[in-house]
Structure of Tripartite tricarboxylate transporter substrate binding protein BugD:
Amino acid sequence: MQFKRTLFTLLALGTAAFAHAQGNWPTKPITLVVPFAAGGPTDVVARTLGAAMTKSLGQTVVVENKLGAGGTVAAAYVAKAQPDGYTFFIHHNGMATAPALYRKLSFDPLKDFEFVSQAVEVPMTFLARKDFPANNFQEMVTYIRANKEKINLANAGLGAVSQLCGMMFQRAVGVQLTEVPFQGTAPAMNALLGGQVDVLCDQTTQTVPQIKAGSVKLYGVTTKNRVKVLPNAPTLAEQGLKDFEVVVWHGIYAPKGTPKPVVDRMNAAVRAALKDPDVIKRMDDLGAEIVPDATNTPEALHAWLKSEIDKWGPVIKAGGKFAD
């Protein structure tokens, strides 16, 4: 009987200490894992948000870049991390495409994480090398259909949104082009600038400077509506590709089992960061769109991820692009 009383007391003390720790959270720096290289689009978003969240959390948000396999290395790492409130994860559309792209996935995007918030969306642009022989979108589609065996379509690697956008474009116009994967968006853009590849679909965070400099040809944006940073650029949908929409969306996650009060506090920190004037200006400069409050809830992120998995699965399977 004495043993049972002692065990109960220890469990009660442990529970009280854990609850107290949650109430004081955070008491040390927080790690935000980024699945791509430093300086890349997702990294820039993460560091901008992290700096702003530090203000409201009272602790530094440290960005850790953990690369590999289209973001699945980082996702698997976070899925297995201690759910103590000090490890979080930011990822883009790759969280939704991984189940279709990888035959052997060590985590379930919908079941192995706590959902914190969406953050920002980044439009995509459809580009060609500067000397591509088409002056508008319709001429470009006509030329590609007539010369599909000769056209090289660059992307930033398996699972990258640039690859998915390219796959969706090919499906929409009824062609199969030669895809040339690179290790990231910067090498893909450099190849386009150098004329080694013909066309590329990539996000505004990477392409706006080249577009404004006249170093590439822009044929449209991939959002439902025109974007602020490129107000004169028509959407692909309004130019004939009905319902064509590809945006790079970013969500923030935590390991499964992270306490709800911690998730809620982190969600509040993300919301505050998205209203920070410095963040707003930085996102405007990048062409990124801050998502509305209604989509900044754990429930909304979960529902959005599920819808994106359903959307991209058939596209990927039709394209036959898989990895082990």
User: Anything to note?
Assistant: Residues 123-221 form a domain with the D-Maltodextrin-Binding Protein; domain 2 fold (CATH 3.40.190.10). Confidence is low (pLDDT under 50) at residues 7-21. DSSP finds eleven helices and ten strands in the chain. Residues 2-24 form the longest helix (23 residues).
